[in-house]
Amino acid sequence: MIKEFVSGSDAGPDVNSLINKVRWAPSGKGCPQSCPQGFPGGRQPRECAWVGDLDELRRLAVRQGGFVGAAQALRLGFSRDQIRHLVRTGRWRRVSRGSYLPFPEPPAAALRRVRIRAAVAGLGPGAVAVLTTAAELHGIGGLQPTETIHVSVPPDRPHMQRRAESGLALHQLTLNAAEIDRVDGVSTTTPVRTVADLVLRVARYPAVCVLDSALNRGLLTEADIPLVLAGVAGRRGAVDARGFVAEADGRAQSPLETRVRLRCVDGGVPPDVLQLHVRDEDGYLLGIGDIAWRHARLIAEADGRAPHLAPGAVYADRFRQNRLINAGWRILRFTWSDTLRPDYIPQTVREALRRTR
What's the Cα-to-Cα distance from 132 to each of 116, 140, 147, 202, rounded to whole Å? Predict the structure, then answer.
């Protein structure tokens, strides 16, 4: 599992260890005797030189979740030429306008999180991660991955000068304090506001996936659904959004399960139960079916790539499937690519249901 950077005292050893890798930069002035590179005999190459207050830089980066601003580096004794050199040689990485990750080759997940932190922090007080970026921070699934970072700034703040920045989409949403949360040190919209904003902007399948994911993860409860509906009321797309909310079901454990269910609904073969617990006569749990038609003893499994490719998962899937088949159940298996063909899943289910008659 890739560890992520977090701000404050919970930043952990990852930030410290990576920042420790970058303590020196070429400048041709020689090095102090305390050079941590440990060259033999205490001799340091002429091109190695101390640049700025690196200890304070380290502490600052940890407090901020892994990044430093150009103005902060200048105050700590770095020159603009040194900053440019550190970026050019790959020792620092630019993560947003005027913000840098002060170590090379961070894990991809860590780099993404630092980019979000730097983008929001760089836009000043009142900046809030919104839309797909807020969903990413909350761990809400069902949306197409994107590198774009969505940030809202207060409506009364000029921001035209930041619109040209690649990978940054600026918005001016009207948000009240109750709609703003903090996730991993980043100001972001709450799950309710995030879901409400998204279901107004995306198509039916991703919208229902977002709703199912938020409900399944406990970020939304059934008691929050009226709040989501209130959040879309009177806004463009509200009519469609209310329909998407009506189709939500938090029992779906993945966006793939949601998509398989919707294909069945659209094809006229809606399942009658999700997450069906199948037990034998003694009450022993034989397995749990993703989507099922109990009267036909038919189960449809959504085979996502990541959860089902590990050797242990493959073995568990086969073992469970054999027990269900021996108990008189039939199993259909569908993948993500199957959901891209509107007729395939419902036709396959319909044929299986026909054979039970």
Answer: 12, 9, 10, 10
Please give the structure tokens belonging to residue 275. Answer: 């997450």
Rounded distance between C-alpha atoms, residue 177 and residue 331, angstroms: 49
Report yes or no: 267 and 261 within 8 Å, Cβ to Cβ.
no
Nearest-Å Rg of the Cα atoms of the chain is 26
Contacting residues for 46 by C-beta, under 8 A, at least 6 apart: 28, 30
Q: Is the four-CA dihedral 246, 252, 254, 255 of positive or negative sign?
A: negative
pTM confidence score: 0.74
For the record, the structure tokens of 210 come out as 């977002």
- Which residue, chain included where needed, has tokens 């406990």? 218
The phi and psi torsions of 155 (rounded to 5 degrees) equal -60, -25
CB 179 within 8 A of CB 193: yes
Alpha-carbon span 253 to 250, nearest angstrom: 7
Alpha-carbon gap, residue 51 to 189, rounded angstroms: 39
Tokens of 148: 């774009």
In the chain, the N- to C-terminal Cα span, in Å, equals 48
pLDDT digits (tens, 9 = 90+) for 21-70: 444 434 334 344 344 333 344 444 444 444 566 777 777 777 776 778 88
Instruction: Tell me the sheet residues that pair with 169.
Output: 150
pLDDT tens digits, one per residue of 161-199:
555 577 899 999 999 999 999 998 899 999 999 999 999
Pairing mode, if any, of strands 298-302 and 285-293?
A: antiparallel
Instruction: Using alpha carbons only, give the angle 15, 16, 21 rounded to the nearest 5 degrees.
Output: 100
Q: What is the pLDDT of residues 210-247, one digit of tens each?
A: 999 999 999 999 999 999 999 999 999 999 999 999 99
Residue 187 host element (H or E): strand 186-189
Helical ranges in 217-252 per DSSP H: 225-232, 238-246
Residues contacting 303, CB < 8 A, separation 6+: 256, 333, 334, 335
Cα 331 from Cα 322, distance rounded (Å): 10
Tokens at residue 276, please? 């069906």
Could you give the angle at the alpha carbon of 324 between the alpha carbons of 318 and 328, nearest 5°?
Answer: 140
- Tokens 């040194």 label which residue? 82
